[in-house]
User: Fold this.
Amino acid sequence: MKNIPLTLTAFLLFIFCCLPPLRAQKQFRVKTIVIDAGHGGKDPGCIGKKSKESQVTLKVALELGNNIKKYMPDVKVLYTRSTDKFVELHDRANFANKNHADLFISIHCNSNPSKNINGTETYAMGLASSEGNLDVAKRENSVILQETDYKEKYGGFDPKSPLGHIFLSNYQSVHLESSLRFADKIENQFKDRVGRKSRGVKQAGFIVLWRTAMPSVLVEIGFLSNEEEEKYLNSEKGQAHIASGLYRAFRDYKEEVESVE
Assistant:
């Protein structure tokens, strides 16, 4: 400090020694989660031999919420629907945004013309890498056809157009990395702890994820088109297992992101 004037040296020493230390940046907390039970009301979703997607997803969503409330009472749990009612896709995202959610999870059941296909898969927003991923997005996005003025609400998006889905899939969220991290934890829980067949983490363009302003995933918990899997998904035991896997994935995700300083 030889070349610095004395008065400046004294001032710098005062700043360093006498002022209170700067506070560290406030640590991020996962305080609110929005759980979205897919479909509902006039929109039953996929239909199996004995069950409807809208009924199964609601039971799993409520069970997941109860687990979080029981074991993590500091987390605020909100549902886009808690009864069998129809909720438009844009309202689901808007609900999460208005409540400043830190995480959004949309729960669905899958279907396929082949009755032998089974397993879980979890999606984040992004470009569909296969025709199968695109088909799932098309099916889930077709819900907007039951909404009034859907072209105005979704910027002219046509769920019947493959090109429209490609454009939507190219949307990249600033929360993509966190969404993929959460999705990976979900599929690991399903595979390693619940004993389900995992079809992996995937990406596709889903309207329900498009407008969310937080990390968001869409989970396909199994195929109602598979007789054995439908039986499992429609049972209390199966729903409890799925909800517990989702809960543990959320717990692990929360611990991980909150440990970053």
Observations:
- Residues 169 and 205 are 4 Å apart (CA to CA).
- The chain has a mean pLDDT of 86.
- The longest strand covers residues 103-110.
- Residues 236-258 form the longest helix (23 residues).
